[in-house]
Amino acid sequence: DHPCMRRFLTAIGGLLLCAVLPAFAEPTVNEYNGYLEKGPWTAMYRRAEGTWHAQLSRRVGAFTVAYRRADLRRTRENRIIAQQSLFRAEGFSLAHRLEYRAFSGDAIDDHWRYRLIAGYRHRLADNMVAWVRLQPRLAFPGGRRLFDARDQVGVEFQLGALRLSPFYERYAFKSWDRHGGNVFGVHAILAL
Hints:
The structure is a single chain. It is built from one helix and twelve strands. Strand 6 and strand 7 form a beta hairpin. By secondary structure, the chain is mainly beta. Strands 1, 2, 3, 4, 5, 6, 7, 8, 9, 10, 11 and 12 form a twelve-stranded mixed β-sheet that branches.
């Protein structure tokens, strides 16, 4: 019954409403992400409408390094990732990531991509957290500069060692106000 909680829930509800209403006119993808965490290691598998990603990552202090292999229908991708946590306090977080993406065949040029990751987590109950993550990205294929964004909002439920987090994602191309589509999915994270 705290006023801040009501404002936060109203804001999340408004974001979801504004995000979901255009979903009926835009491309929509269903995505399922599974994670196994043990100490500094994380294994991830993602399935999304005919594509898959598998990733192994390791945290080293404020840094995370990872290798990802993906089947993207038209091509296969090998990705090297370096991410650094810049700030974390009071539910807010800020990180940035540099990736090198190498593709098989000629469908997509190999390129570097940079992303900023800003997040906020708000505890709703002992085992429930609402979260939002903004991820503007710049890619540099073939000497060009391309902007896109993957912005997510979700709720995480803690069930012992398992965390389940249904989410909605809005992605944008060329500019933040140019809506490119929607993703509805779930993150399932098991700590071993």
